[in-house]
């Protein structure tokens, strides 16, 4: 009776191919294991490509500055070192499902201009996207308020009302909302704006969505600026307050970098550097 090897060789001869040598013969179990390993490798590669695509899509919608990373951050003062430590703890907490489901969390970054508040918030967001595929939106509050204001122009032809409603829905649904420049150049928000912002934060609270608020005000000024109703919305969160008090990291404009002005020119030239 012919063996399996003989049958294979007979078939190979009939097809004009050389005999299968002893060293080339692979039994069924070994062959099946090889194919399963190959299939698993292909699935892992497909999953990795799919994850990269998802992460790229989240980054694309986030509107984050790509330079806001921990690698680009200079930890040159105690407040920045402490802020980075708190930020890393906040990121690491996402490993715990019970923490993520326990409620809504708010990080409140406050301090003067140029202290690194936006940079650290952005670095946190980048890492959360990469590690946990957390959806993120970075928005300046003033930009949202302008969009909200123009949405009431019913004679507008650019469909601004629908655009704002879609933007507002996105603000409610995103996993992490970063609101920057909160009440910048504002002593106090209008009452209807306070109510809108307070309702936004309360709805996110109910939906267990996290926030980072960035402001140049101290906490007392912030409470006055956004109003008690809105500030009480912040209190409802599990809040981490981070104060930035170190030196500004923004470069000034040196005198020799300014464009020279002509003394004989009578044309108006604003914002002259002297």
From TrEMBL:
Source organism superkingdom: Bacteria
One Pfam family from the record: IstB_IS21
GO molecular function: ATP binding
All copies of domain IstB-like ATP-binding, residue ranges: 98-226
GO BP of this protein: DNA replication
Family annotation (InterPro entries): IstB_ATP-bd (IPR002611), P-loop_NTPase (IPR027417)
SUPFAM superfamilies with a match to the protein in the record: P-loop containing nucleoside triphosphate hydrolases (SSF52540)
Chain intervals for the UniProt region annotation (Disordered): 249-274
PANTHER family: ATP-BINDING PROTEIN RV3427C IN INSERTION SEQUENCE-RELATED, CHROMOSOMAL REPLICATION INITIATOR PROTEIN DNAA
Full protein name: AAA family ATPase
């Amino acid at each position: 009776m012919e063996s399996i090897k003989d049958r294979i060789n007979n078939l190979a001869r009939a097809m004009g191919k050389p005999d299968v040598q002893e060293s080339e013969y692979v039994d069924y179990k070994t062959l099946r294991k090889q194919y399963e390993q190959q299939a698993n490798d292909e699935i892992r590669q497909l999953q990795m490509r799919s994850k990269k695509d998802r992460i790229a899509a989240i980054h694309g919608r986030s509107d984050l500055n790509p330079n806001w990373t921990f690698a680009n951050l200079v930890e040159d003062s105690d407040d920045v070192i402490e802020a980075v430590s708190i930020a890393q703890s906040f990121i690491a907490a996402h490993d715990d499902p019970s923490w993520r489901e326990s409620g809504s969390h708010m990080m409140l970054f406050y301090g003067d201009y140029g202290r690194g508040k936006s940079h650290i918030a952005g670095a946190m967001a980048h890492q959360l996207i990469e590690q946990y595929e957390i959806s993120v939106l970075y928005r300046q509050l003033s930009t949202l308020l302008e969009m909200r204001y123009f949405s009431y122009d019913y004679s507008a032809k650019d469909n601004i009302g629908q655009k704002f409603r879609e933007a507002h829905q996105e603000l409610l649904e995103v996993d992490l909302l970063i609101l920057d420049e909160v009440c910048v150049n504002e002593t106090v928000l209008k009452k209807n704006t306070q109510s809108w912002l307070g309702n936004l934060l309360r709805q996110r609270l109910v939906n267990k969505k996290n926030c980072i608020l960035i402001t140049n005000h101290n906490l007392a000024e912030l409470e006055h600026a956004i109003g008690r109703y809105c500030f009480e919305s912040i209190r409802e969160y599990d809040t981490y307050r981070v104060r930035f008090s170190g030196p500004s990291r923004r470069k000034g404009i040196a005198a020799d970098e300014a464009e020279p002005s002509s003394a004989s020119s009578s044309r108006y030239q604003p914002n002259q550097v002297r």
